[in-house]
Amino acid sequence: MYTLPEDIPVGHTRLKNSEMMPLTLPGTDPPPGGRYSVYDFFFDCERDCWRLWSELIDTTPIPSDAKFRRIIIPSIDTVRYSFLLDKGVGHAQPVLIVGPTGTGKSVLVQKYLYGLPPDTYVPPNVIGFSARTTANATQHLIDAKLDRRRRGVFGPPVGKRAVVFVDDLNMPQLETYGAQPPIELLRQFMDHGGWYDRQNCFRRLDDVLFVAAMGPPGGGRNPITPRYARHFNLVSIVDFDETTLGRIFSTLLAWHLDVRSFPNYIKELRDPIISATLSVYTRVAAQLLPTPTRSHYTFNLRDISRVMQGFLLLPPQLLGASPVQAKEKYLRLWAHEILRVFYDRLVDDRDRTWFLSFLRTVMKERLGAEFDSLFAHLRPQGAGGEGGGEVTIEGVRRCFFGDYMDDNEDPALRQYDEVTDIPSLTARVEEMLADHNATSKRPMNLAVFLYAVEHISRITRVLKQPGGHLLLVGVGGSGRQSLARLAAFICGMVAFQVEISKSYGPAEWREDLKRFVRAAGGDNRPSVFLFSDSQIKAESFVEDVNNLLNSGEVPNMFPYDERAAVLEQCRAASKREGLALETAVELWAYFVDKTRDNLHIVLAMSPIGDAFRERLRQFPSLVNCCTIDWFTAWPDDALEAVAMKFLRDVDLTPEQRNQVMLQCKMFHEDVRQLSEAFRSEQGRINYVTPTSYLELITCFTTLLGAKRAEVSAAKRRYEVGLDKLQFTASQVSIMQDELTALKPVLIRTVEETERLMATVSKEKTEVVEPKKAIVDQDVKRAEGAAAAANAIKTECEDALAEAIPILEAAISALDTIKPADIKLVQSFKNPPSTIKLVMEAVCVLLDIKPQRIKDPSGSGKMIDDYWGSAQKLLADPLFVKTLKEYDKDAVPPRIIERIRREFTSNPEFTPNNAAKASSAAEGLCKWVCAMDQYDRVAKVVAPKREALAVAEAEYGKVMDALKAKQADLAEVMGRLATLERQLERSMAEKSRLEAETELCTAKLERAEKLISGLGGEKTRWTEAAAQLGGQYECLTGDMLIAAGVIGYLGAFTAAYREQVVGKWVGGCAAARIPRSANFSLSAALGDPVKIRSWTIDGLPNDAFSIDNAIMVANARRWPLMIDPQSQANKWVKSMEGRRDLRVIKLTDGDYMRTLENAVQFGLPVLLENVGEELDPSLEPLLLKQVFKQGGVSYLRLGDTTVEFSDQFRFYITTALRNPHYLPETAVKVTLLNFMITPDGLADQLLGVVVAQERPDLEEQRQQLVVESAENKKRLAEIEDRILQVLSSSQGNILEDATAIQILSEAKAVSNEIQIKQQAAELTERAIEQARTCYAPCGAFNATLFFCIRDMAAVDPMYQYSLAWFLKLFVRSIQQAPRGGCGGAAAEHQRPLHLRALPEHMQVPV
């Protein structure tokens, strides 16, 4: 600054001639402090005077339809920075703007650059740097927007300039030598006007100007080199002062209150609310500073905007009726939004307590309101005692505002309101969860409780806000993704998620991102992109998400052709909204704006490890652009609600259910404390997550149900077997009495039967057969007579067959004659000749006399005239009936002869001619002709009929005689039938008595077999049934503890397991939960036959390893075994080798193909030598995301859907001695510590030394072990078969010969095996006795191995494998002199072991 005029340089005449800068301005309000400073003025060269910056502030009112996110409130500071930026760009001078996060640097620059005149500037090229930005990517982003002007020269189109805006300039991380390659590339342009391309040719860039923005170094931002900074004009943006912030946010809030027509008494709260908000922000930013465990404790002005944005959600009509109620509700809304923005990210109760205390103070001082009074409904029950009834952390959990209680079907129309009825809210969420599960392919079995409702409410609040994003921070299994999916469903949004596969890379990632942003920006569909840290296969994924959060787009993600398609899609969408967008820049800006509005990014990350902290440092938008929701450990009410939901359907008494729930909570807390001790004492990390708790309860319900069914069925089979034996014993004497009583009855029945047989035989021979022969002869004669009569009858019918159709046709023709037709004929005075002819024939046939009249021709003679008679005949109403009933068989010969002579032989007498005259005449003519033809046939048939009558009479006589004889025969046959029935009943009785006698004898024999075979089992079965009954009563406690062991204790060593299991047994005893006195996992869930099979397959023979194997068999999740000595690896390979085990490693190129085939065909798979992270593409398999389609189970692995076989088994092993599995991995598997134990190793070493010293003894022992295991297995199978036969037989088992035979054979085999087993056990005891003399050697060397194993705690280089130790052990045995047996051998070998160890452990220096 120039303090005196003479200080102004020569040439600045306008400045020298102007007036001095005034300190006050008449007619204006005095500035703060009463005087202006030099920073309040600028020199206007056009007016040659000093002017206030405030004169340039745009005072245009905010449009009522403006989007909150796009509103910019101008201030003196923004005017200053825009002015300086304009001067720099206008004079082609690079400008670097530096300022804290949230001060609007990016918005300020982009608003200015997009407002540059298009005839001079091309659209600005906006590039956002991150920690992962490379020099190659930077060069590509800039070169892609430039044209080739001539060889080696590039730039925008000729006549225009290009401005490249680099945001977050100092974010790229330092390389090995401290440089930042992207910045060094930009410096090369600044120094030399261009850079080298990939072909090492220099590219000069013309008409290109750089503008950059960055935050102060620190927190992931690095200082830029001075050699680069010297090229820029530096503009420093400082934090807005409280006055400026107050004016900005007061303007925003006033606009909202005016637009939504809030009442004046709410508008009065504007300034106090803004003041209180700024106080909270200022104090929180100063008090809650970021630390390594609280790296997300960074606050900026965006947080204030999020609070303001929350006010936009509540409509004024829901405030309340009275002003007091409305003000209180509005203040509760303010407190709720403050809690959601600042409070939800806090990690522990200490910070939360401090925040509530400070919020209570702020509300009292700034708003004049008592926090505890406003939220009196959140106070604990019985408030007013100790603590003054303050609202606690627990009470704040019940503070809810949301739109989910609105029943409107359209989520966009639901109204945001306060929710105080927590039970109704919980029920509403459960209803929405049920709706989700009914329509989703991935239903979620969630328990809805207060903790879940809290986070669902927080997520839905952010999703309701345009451009709202979330960062959900919590350990794996805390429900982040499930609750986010449910919240998206509640908001009516589609939830997208990438599916990670083995081949998933940047190309597939970009394709997924394109799909998501096109759905949100192009289709204008509100969407949720759910992305978890377990899906991060490359950090470039996070960089793209960072860009989406910051700017709404990923640079150069769309190639030219796809970008053109997106622009066309947006052109159509914008026209539907009434926008006239034509240029590509406008359309792309529309697409980005819609994407920012509709695409809600929900990040699910774990705070465990360094990755979370590093990502927040490298990608600051993860914090700056997201509302953070910290998922704490489940509170007590959450644990109780989840337990009660899953225990609701378990068969327990209410008291037992409550006690089991309390025990589950105790287990959870005990294991958390045990994990802390395990970490401090052993250096091993184990995480206790909500998933572990769910696994405990799920495992308990599954095991209890299965074990109850198993024990109940076994007990029932023993009881049925005992009932059958008891019934058999009671039936023996009864059957003997029955057999004694049956014998005399059987003898008497046999005698009666023989007597009846003789009588029946005599009756047949002497009476029945002679009479039957006579009747048969008569029957033959009758059949001959009947045949003759039938032949004559057939001839008659054949002859009549010609005339009958004609007669029927005539009768049918008569039916066609209508009364009207007859009336018509009757009415004729002088009818036609044809009619007269027909009627004359009818009269002749009916034998009706004619009338005598004079001849009309005038001859004077009297002639016969039938017309008068015909008219009388026609007048008869029964005329047609008379014709139908005419006796055609009795026509006098004189009449029929006259008919043939005078009528039918007349050519004019035809039906056709008659039809011409009248239809009635036609029918009558047909009838007359039919009578004539029938008579001709009847004359031929008449003799035959007479013959037929004679034949039928003869046949009748024969039949009468035959019937008399048949009646006589029937009487005789009746007597014979009666005798035969008596004989049949007698024979049946005889057969029945014989069968009963035979069955009774057989049953006695079977009873003797059954009693002799199974009678000895009665005592043992009685004891077994009683033992199973007691076991059934203890199942509740035993299965609860077993579920705790499986769900929680897999990663712990034996000592820690025993410690906590002992406490759990005592806890169950105190809670009066039935349980066994001495709990062991092998007794609760183990099968002796299966355990022996496991040990034969190589499982170490100690309780710890056996418990691990039981957990593998009963756990719901696939096992991940910590196996540094390869014990589990060998065991699995031996056990599953018979089922075509597939062994894979993550380093195999085709391991995913192998896995897909195994899943489809039900083969076991062993994934060995994994590290501390698993391939994300395995997640669907680890989580068993099986779905049904067409009744078939399917699993989607990456981009392949394969059929899922129930026979598939998956085992994972790691050779790491002390792996650190993060919760995201641990919750997907069952972690098992398979490290060798001293007992197990001692047993193995004992086998080794015996194999070296007495190979014959060890070989015999191994053979006996296998035989013994096979014998016990067969004995168990036989007993199961015996009990199965006994329990499945229906009724009296003594009547089931097959069952008795099966039981006899099974018992015989069982006795044979028992004899062999007893001999084998004697031999095995003798061998064990011989082996015990070598036991000190095994125990000593086991101790030796654990001593050298623990040396790894001193230095990691002191790590020795068990295989190395075994080789050394065998070598020392071979080198030791033979010393006899036992102690002598051990004494000879011990010095060699001790001497061999240092020789192989020391490394010469």
TrEMBL record:
It is found in: Cytoplasm, Cytoskeleton, Cilium axoneme. Keywords: ATP-binding, Cell projection, Cilium, Coiled coil, Cytoplasm, Cytoskeleton, Dynein, Microtubule, Motor protein, Nucleotide-binding. GO terms for molecular function: ATP binding; dynein intermediate chain binding; dynein light intermediate chain binding. It holds the Pfam family MT. Residues 962-1010 form a coiled coil. It comes from the Eukaryota. This is AAA+ ATPase domain-containing protein. The lineage of its organism: Eukaryota, Viridiplantae, Chlorophyta, core chlorophytes, Chlorophyceae.
